[in-house]
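Bumping my old thread because nobody answered last time. Still need a sequence for this structure:
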């Protein structure tokens, strides 16, 4: 698959052979999260004490421009694993998207995500799982079955969360949410309203919790102060699937 780059107004964009944007980086702030939906992929921070984040394990399925992995590695100080099927994407991220070299806290696995997440070394070992798996047409998730989401759930620690990038204005959205709810339980699923571009991030907890609104707001304050993410705005468009 061809990998291309473009730049506009200080932002570098990643494309996989089409005009569709598969990721971005603000050139003067390469470790910040530029796209709104990518920021929302960090909503698991609402459910995890801020002081416990550093040293935890983040896994990204579908490297894209590497934004999530870079943020977790540089800003959150987490151990990070990214799984990407296309070695060219990883090469471009290192050369043009400021993806740091691998070390004891950062590993890029070249392989098929569906197969890799069945490796026993990852079972119960992931605190924050980000799923963003689209083909070059970006039409629908590449992996979206109940079997796949069951494999994802098995990766998570007891207080771990999965966030998934879905397209909220397509027919596949309800099917995807139903698959996630079937595996995790409806009480474990939260969803954002779609962004202007149509991306709808869905979050699923390994162990469902129902924090009070005041607790979520307090945690959002901490997230904004520590990491500069618009977490208070999230709460206006982020709801539990089951009331």
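Sorry it took so long. Here it is:
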């Amino acid at each position: 698959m061809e990998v291309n780059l473009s730049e506009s107004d200080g932002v570098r964009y990643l494309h996989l052979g089409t005009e569709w944007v598969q990721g971005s980086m603000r050139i003067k702030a390469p470790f910040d999260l530029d796209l709104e939906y990518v920021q929302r992929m960090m909503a698991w921070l609402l459910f995890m004490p801020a002081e416990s984040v550093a040293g935890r394990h983040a896994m990204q399925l579908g490297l894209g421009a590497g934004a999530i992995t870079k943020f977790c590695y540089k800003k959150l100080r987490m151990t990070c694993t990214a799984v990407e099927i296309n070695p060219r994407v990883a090469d471009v991220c290192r050369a043009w998207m400021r993806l740091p070299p691998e070390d004891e806290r950062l590993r890029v696995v070249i392989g098929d995500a569906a197969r890799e997440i069945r490796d026993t070394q990852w079972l119960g070992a992931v605190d924050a799982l980000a799923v963003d798996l689209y083909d070059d047409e970006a039409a629908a998730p590449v992996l979206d079955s109940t079997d796949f989401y069951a494999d994802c759930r098995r990766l998570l620690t007891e207080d771990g969360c999965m966030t998934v990038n879905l397209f909220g204005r397509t027919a596949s959205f309800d099917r995807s949410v139903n698959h996630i709810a079937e595996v995790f339980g409806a009480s474990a699923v939260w969803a954002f309203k779609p962004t202007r571009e149509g991306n709808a991030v869905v979050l699923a907890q390994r162990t469902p919790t129902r924090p009070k609104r005041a607790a979520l707001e307090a945690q959002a304050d901490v997230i904004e102060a520590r990491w500069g993410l618009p977490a208070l705005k999230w709460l206006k468009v982020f709801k539990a699937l089951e009331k």
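The first helix runs from residue 36 to 40. Let me know if any region looks off to you.
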